[in-house]
Amino acid sequence: MPAENIVAVHHLKKSVGQGEHELSILTGVELVVKRAETIALIGESGSGKSTLLAILAGLDDGTSGEVNLVGQPLHQLDEEARAALRAKHIGFVFQSFMLIPTLNALENVELPGLLRGENASQSRHGAKALLEQLGLGKRLDHLPAQLSGGEQQRVALARAFNGRPDVLFADEPTGNLDRQTGDKIADLLFTLNREHGTTLILVTHDPQLAARCDRRLRLVNGLLQEEV
């Protein structure tokens, strides 16, 4: 895979069930994503967008086909190797934030660095800088329950970008937020993309968010169709 291609997918299929109960979700997806591109995965509810995102990130397996992520063939890696790849190269933002409720904002953000083997001082410094950049410098000691939805999503963004991932996967990153807060989160996503060269692959139902991406790919009948 050429160095500029951060994701490459060939003839990816995914089905669940067996026999007459088998359901095809992905029927032959082809996809190449270049470094620092921003991609919106769009389509009807239940079309398989979140399933595709999980497979691209190495969190799930396809039934057949090939997925290469940052030059690594995921189908040839065991779970331990995939986990190491994700820790080094990948960030995630989920609609439900996925913050650890017993850790404060700073601790949530510094945790990925510690899991990657950074020393505590280095990880804390990077986490604090990101939170301050996202306007949460005065909320470092607050638990998730003490933060608004928009603040929690910013903490989740900071956590995702701590360690400067090569690829950020986001599943409906603004889906639980009001329009004003969602627009601010989108602004932060694209700012961090520009500043760090991180590839963004987003699942979204928000046409305004999708329009800001370099490419919009619609999942229809298990295949991706590029929209102009």
How is this fold's topology laid out?
Blueprint: E1 5-16, E2 23-34, E3 38-42, H1 49-56, E4 64-69, E5 72-73, H2 79-89, E6 90-94, H3 105-115, H4 120-133, H5 149-161, E7 167-171, H6 179-196, E8 199-203, H7 207-211, E9 215-220, E10 223-227
Parallel strand pairs: 3-8, 3-9, 6-7, 7-8
Antiparallel strand pairs: 1-2, 1-4, 4-5, 9-10
Question: How would you sum up this structure, described in words?
Answer:
- There is one protein chain.
- By secondary structure, the protein is an alpha/beta fold.
- The protein has a single domain (5-227), classed as P-loop containing nucleotide triphosphate hydrolases (Rossmann fold).
- The protein has helices at residues 49-56, 79-89, 105-115, 120-133, 149-161, 179-196, 207-211; strands at 5-16, 23-34, 38-42, 64-69, 72-73, 90-94, 167-171, 199-203, 215-220, 223-227.
- It has a 6-stranded mixed β-sheet, sandwiched between helices. Strands 2-1-4-5 form a 4-stranded antiparallel β-sheet, covered by helices on one side.
- 39% of the residues are buried.
